Amino acid sequence: MTDPLVDRLKHLIVEALKLEGVTPAEIADDEPLIGAGLNLDSIDALELVVRLEKEFGIKISNSEESRTALASIKSLTDFVRERADPARLPS
């Protein structure tokens, strides 16, 4: 069974960053998002943080927190689940 939050985050990454040639299903849960893996850069990370803050009502307050949260889909899922208003999470 797939986690609806993982699915939502993968879709959000592809949509927000307009990743061409990448489908949400191709993003591995433990693959790095920044640098290797999806090869996102700091501008992509900033766009993603803004979108996550709007979508889930969370605050990512500094670059260290951003690096931790955006390490992989798994870390991002854990971060969002810990901080988001449960009403904003997909069920």
Automatic annotation (TrEMBL):
It comes from the Bacteria. It holds the Pfam family PP-binding. Keywords: Phosphopantetheine, Phosphoprotein. Gene3D superfamilies: ACP-like. InterPro entries: ACP-like_sf, PP-bd_ACP, Ppantetheine_attach_site. Residues 3-84 form the Carrier domain. This is Acyl carrier protein. It comes from Nibricoccus aquaticus.
